[in-house]
Amino acid sequence: MSLSSAKPDKIRELIRNEKLFGHTSGMAKGYVQANVVILPEKYAFDFLKFCFRNPKTCPLLDVAETGNASFPIYGKHADIRTDVSQYRVYRHGELVATPNNVRDLFTDEMVSFLIGCSFTFEHALLEAGLPVRHIEEQHNVPMYVTNIQTRPSGIFHGPLTVSMRPMLMQEAIKATEITARYKQVHGTPIHIGDPAAIGINDLDRPDFGEAVQIKENEVPVFWGCGVTPQSVALAAKPELVITHAPGHMFVTDVLESQMGD
Amino acid sequence: MSLSSAKPDKIRELIRNEKLFGHTSGMAKGYVQANVVILPEKYAFDFLKFCFRNPKTCPLLDVAETGNASFPIYGKHADIRTDVSQYRVYRHGELVATPNNVRDLFTDEMVSFLIGCSFTFEHALLEAGLPVRHIEEQHNVPMYVTNIQTRPSGIFHGPLTVSMRPMLMQEAIKATEITARYKQVHGTPIHIGDPAAIGINDLDRPDFGEAVQIKENEVPVFWGCGVTPQSVALAAKPELVITHAPGHMFVTDVLESQMGD
Question: Same domain, yes or no, for A150 and A22?
C-alpha cells in the first residue's frame, strides 16, 4: 500500500513506531493535515481566545482536553506526543530541540491545538482549474510578514503573516468564492493586489518560503498563513511551546470533503 | 428619541444609570443583542472550548480579556458590570440574587462571554416573509430539552436545548438557507420534523417558554437555543456564575447587517 492511499491511523502508527520520517505532503490523500501548537494550560485560554479572534490566520480545527493526547473530532485514537514525525521545542521563544516524540515533555498540564493548513484549500483550487504557482514550480509557498496586526489576546499579539498565490483577477474572484467554503483553513483572501497596501515591499524577497513567478496580468492574492499562530506563540516567549516542524504535519481522521463551516 | 431608534451606547448608558429597567426587546433596532455568561478565569478555558465545540447552541460573539469589563468588537466602551438591566447570580448552581449591577462581584479574575441570541435570525426570517409563530402570538418561544448531548469540555456537559418554530416544509427549507448565513446566531436547524427523533415527547409542553399553534401541514423546525450554555454552566455548579436575566440582554455595538461569518 502506498502512503498516498494509506489511512490516517496507519500513517500515524508508522510515525509513532519511528518507521516513517520526513514531510507528510501527499500522504493519506484526501484527509486534512493540521498545524500543531502545544502549550501549558495557563496559556491555553488566551491562545484559544487568540484563535477565536483571528479565524483567518488561526483557523482552529480541534483542541484537546487538558493533559489529553487525543482530539474529540480530528484524532480520537491519535497520540499527539508521538504522531508527528518531527517536533520543535521552544523555551522562552528559543528553539532548543527537534525530537521525534515529546513523551517526556507532555504533562497533565499541556493543551494541544490543531490549526488548519492551506493544503486543503489548495486542493480545492487545483480541482477548480485555478493556478497554484508554487506547486507548479515544485517548491514552498512564499510567505510575507504584513503590517496588519492580529487582534491581541492576553500575552499573544503580533503581525499577521500571509501566503501568496498569483493569478488573473477573474481567477482571484473565483478563488475567493471557493475559499469562502473553507473557513476552517484560512477562508477568503486577506488582500488582493498591491503588496504595499499591506506592508510588503518586495514580492521577490519573501520572509519565509520561496518567491514565485508572477505572469503578465496576474495579481498577487494573499491568504492568512498558519505561520502566524506559531510566530505569535513564540513571540510571547512562554517557558515551553511545542510545534510540528515545517511540513511534518499531524494527519487527521477528517476528510477534506467532510470539512466546511 | 424612542428607545427603538436609540443607539446601543445610549441604551447601555440609561441602564447603567438605572434610568431604564426591564426587557430590551425592540430596543436599538438593527443592533445585535447578546446572551451573557460571566465566570471565574479558572473555568474560562473550558467554557470557551465548550463554545468552540458547540457552535450551534453556543455561538460565541465575543469574549473579554480576563478582568476586563468591555469587549474588543461588540462593546468597546461598554461596562459588563452595569450595562445589563437585570443579572442572575448563581453560586454552586443555585440562584442567589438578581441585582441591577454586579460591581461588587466582578473581580480581576472574571471573564465575560457574549453569546448569540435568536432575535437576529428571527428578524431575517420575518424579512423573508417566513412565519415566526410565537411573535405572531406575542409570547415567548417554546424551548425543549432534547436527548442530544452537547460535546463536553472539562466540567461543562449536558443535553442540548432547542427552540421551535413551526412552518411548511418548503418554508423550513428556505429558513435553513437563510439561517445558514447566521452561524453566529445558531445557524441552520438542529432538526426538522418528528420531535420524538430528538427526545421531545410533547410539543404542547415545552420545558421553557410557551407552546405555539402548529397549523395543518406544518412541521416543527428546531434550532439550537441560547439556554443551553447557561444551563450547562449552571449544571457544572461552579462557585460563581453571573448571567443576564431572561430577556434582559446586552445590547451590542454591532449591526445585525454587519454580522455573518
Answer: no
Say yes or no: B95 and B26 in one domain: yes
Contact B48 A53 (CB under 8 A): no
A203: closest CA of chain B, how far (Å)? 30
* Residue B105 included in any domain: yes
**Structural domain count, chain B:** 2
Task: Give chain B positions within 8 Å (CB) of A66.
Answer: 45, 154
Residues in B closer than 8 angstroms to A109, CB to CB, are none
Whether B28 and B125 share a structural domain: no
pLDDT at A1: 56
Upper half-sphere CA count for residue B135 (Cβ side, 13 Å): 13
Tell me the pLDDT of chain A averaged across its residues: 92
Q: CA of A5: how far to CAs of A2, A138, B11, B153, B244, in Å?
A: 6, 21, 59, 34, 52
Domain co-membership, A35 together with A46: yes
C-alpha cell at B111: 471573564
Least confident span in A161-165, A181-185, B18-22? A181-185
Give the model's pLDDT for residue A260: 59
Of residues A63 and A26, the one with the higher pLDDT is A63
Hey, what's the cell of B35? Answer: 446572551
The answer to whether residue B30 is domain-embedded is: yes
pLDDT > 90? residue B92:
yes
pLDDT of residue B256: 87
> Which three cell numbers, joined as nine digits, stand for B174?
428556505
| pLDDT score recorded for residue B128 | 92
Q: Which of B41, B46, B48 to mutate to test the interface with A (most CBs of A within 10 A)?
A: B48
Quick one: B71 and B172 in the same domain? Answer: no
Please give the pLDDT value at position A140: 85
The 10s digit of each residue's pLDDT in B149-203 is: 999 999 999 999 999 999 999 999 999 999 888 877 778 999 999 999 999 999 9
Per the prediction, chain B carries an average pLDDT of 92
C-beta atoms of A60 and B52 within 8 A:
yes
Contact B153, B49 (CB under 8 A): yes
Residue of B nearest to A66 (CA): B154
What is the extent of the structural domain holding B174?
A: 119-228
Cα→Cα distances B94→B97, B133, B235, B238, B242, Å: 9, 33, 10, 10, 11
> Which of A45, A53, A61, A156 should be substituted to probe chain B, the one whose Cβ sees the most B Cβ atoms within 10 Å?
A45
Set of chain A residues whose Cβ sits within 8 Å of the Cβ of B154 = 65-66
A45's grid cell:
485560554
Report the chain A residue with the minimal C-alpha distance to residue B53: A62
With CB atoms and an 8 Å threshold, state whether A66 touches B151: no
Q: Say whether both A110 and A126 belong to one domain.
A: no
Answer for the pair A81, A138: CB distance below 8 angstroms, yes or no.
no
